[in-house]
Amino acid sequence: MVTRLDRLLVRGAGRFPGAVVAVTFCFLYLPVAVVGYLSLSPGAQPTIPLDGFSLRWYGEVFADRRFLRSMLTSLGLGVFAAVFGTTLGLAAAYTLVRSRLRASVRGAIGAVIALPLFVPTVVVAFGIGITANRLGIGFGLLPVALGHLFWVLPFSTFLIAARYGELDPAVSEAARDLGADRVAVFRTVTLPLLLPALVASALFCFALSFNEFLITFFLSGSGTTTVPLEIFGKVRVGATSFLNAASVIVLVIGALAAGTASAIRKPT
């Protein structure tokens, strides 16, 4: 049922599409542009307008050993989430799309997998922390890695499942009729067709893990520091040019991963 408010919104957007796009674009990207602008400040405390432009703070970021260690930790966690998230997502996608389970069972499995998307991240992090404590794992790199894996799994599963659903089962059946076993069919037919979705899934998982803060904050303890945690720790000192440059680097890495994933994930 179309309400009066819906009609007003449609008419307003239809009359001023350029203004709507401009406002949306500014809302999303103006803060990012400001951070990038301030990262070019020659001084430690940036002001608007800048007195000049300098890449000094990017050099300071890459010369900071503590920041580099946190960068390596974030990269390692991102690779872990990409590899294992995509692998488990592929298995889960097969279960949801191609398994012989009843539709109600597949629906229940899908709902369980999707649960982290609807539960507040703080609740997910708290639950993983309690479970890790009960199992004697404690806090540190392993609980953080498992927490990131738990977080990225729904995204990986449903991205791959969407591609799985587009595949024509007749192609696999034709390969079986020609004498190929299930393993050969999967390796030579299904896997190449799923490859764009698998690569996109890996990149999305990497980007999600690399930028994850709350789960890492709850589970890292004192010995594990990622880039978001390192930036958060320095924020309390003040919005310095160092932080702006570090934030731009993190944004670029995440944007490249997510953008590449979006470009790759195209139906063939």
From TrEMBL:
GO BP terms, alphabetized: transmembrane transport
Stored Gene3D superfamilies: MetI-like (1.10.3720.10)
Signal sequence segment: none
Membrane as UniProt keyword: yes
InterPro entries in the record: Bact_Polyamine_Transport, MetI-like, MetI-like_sf
A Gene Ontology cellular-component term: plasma membrane
UniProt domain ABC transmembrane type-1: residue ranges: 71-261
Transmembrane regions: 20-40, 75-97, 109-131, 137-162, 183-210, 242-264
Subcellular location: Cell membrane
PROSITE patterns noted in UniProt: ABC_TM1
Keyword match Transmembrane: yes
Keyword annotations: Cell membrane, Membrane, Transmembrane, Transmembrane helix, Transport
Predominant location category: membrane
Membrane topology reported for the UniProt record: Multi-pass membrane protein
Highest rank taxon of the organism: Archaea
One of the Pfam families matching this protein, by short name: BPD_transp_1
PANTHER family xrefs: PUTRESCINE TRANSPORT SYSTEM PERMEASE PROTEIN POTI
Family that this chain belongs to: Belongs to the binding-protein-dependent transport system permease family. CysTW subfamily.
Entry protein name: ABC-type transport system permease protein
Organism listed in the record: Natronomonas moolapensis (strain DSM 18674 / CECT 7526 / JCM 14361 / 8.8.11)
